[in-house]
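Sample pair:
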Amino acid sequence: MADIGVRRVDFGYFVRPAEETGTGQCRVEPTLGYLIDHPHGGLVLVDTGMGRHPEVDAHYRPRRVPLAGALRAAGAEVGDIAYVVNCHLHFDHCGGNPELGGRPVFTQRVELELARTTEHTIPELIDHPGARYEELDGEAEILPGVMIVPTPGHTSGHQSMVVTRRDGTVIVAGQSHDNASLFTGDVLSQRACVGRHPVWIDRLLAFDPRQVLFAHDNAVWTP
């Protein structure tokens, strides 16, 4: 029987301004999604790329790879997508959602509430024609071996994907951390019982992950 596949989708990059990096310098960051290829459930797309808005474009100077082209480069077509999961609903993670109308979109209820009632994101990316949300209040196994786990911090409703494969667990952690090095720091903090780390780090490590993947870093964390 085929195993669950996980592969990267390249949606382009943007320039994070110096005032947001903490270093005093701009930083160019990739925007990555992931395809989870389930042998029985079909394709799950985790994050859908960058949305468009004049203020967003002026601030972040994005260079987008359109949804169809990004999926094609990863060996899929828009019509192949059965389910959508957004790690959170900022513009650079749900930009392609309007092109995927009718598919179930799994999100934490608190995240959707933020997107609808605050200046959390670009409104037209949320309640677009065909929008169909599956609102969650915590963990949920959406397909056998494919689990959503809340990882709040970057936003109150941030969530990660835990994929149980025969050769080990792969976690798609989205923007739980900006990069793999920051994740490493929290893992070491947890192991050494020194400093502070998110309480959910314990939950993710309990899955004994073989790899942890991120939305804005090409690097992959390994134990």
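The longest strand covers residues 5-16.
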